[in-house]
Amino acid sequence: MTLGKHEIKGITLKQIKPLPASTFEKLMVEAGYFRSGSAPTFQGRWFVYFVHSSFGRVEAVYSPDKKVVITAYHPD
């Protein structure tokens, strides 16, 4: 799974490759999402959770150093 293969309500991801975390987070904030937490996951990667008042939660998978967003999606 890579970024851009999943639809995230409120933003348009035109590229399929991973994004720098700062770029992805700027898109999310501009669309009205805010970061609600994080948790370690497989292979040293991190889940970072974003919520929105209308669109629901987004789960993003970050690289171990949290500098690159590998994929993101609505879990429901």
Summarize the SSE layout with pairings.
Blueprint: E1 19-20, H1 21-30, E2 34-40, E3 46-51, E4 58-62, E5 68-73
Antiparallel strand pairs: 1-5, 2-3, 3-4, 4-5
Offer a few descriptive terms:
5-stranded antiparallel β-sheet; mainly beta; 5 strands; globular; 76 residues
Structural notes for this entry:
With 76 residues, the chain is mainly β. It has a 5-stranded antiparallel sheet with strand order 1-5-4-3-2, covered by helices on one side. The longest helix is centred in the middle third of the chain and has 10 residues.
How would you summarize this macromolecular structure in one to three sentences?
The chain is mainly β and 76 residues long. The protein is built from one helix and five strands.
How large is the count of helical segments? 1
User: What oligomeric arrangement do these chains adopt?
Assistant: single chain
Instruction: Report the order of strands and helices.
Output: EHEEEE
Query: Spans with pLDDT under 50 lasting ≥5 residues?
Result: none
Coarse morphology: globular
Q: What would the average pLDDT be, to the nearest integer?
A: 90
- Judged by helices, strands and strand pairing, the structural class is mainly beta
- Total strands: the figure is 5
Give the biggest sheet. 5 strands, antiparallel
**Helical content band:** 10-25%
The N- and C-terminal alpha carbons lie at a distance of 16 Å
Task: Output the radius of gyration.
Answer: 11 Å
Strand content: 25-35%
Spatial sequence of strands, sheet with the most strands: 1-5-4-3-2
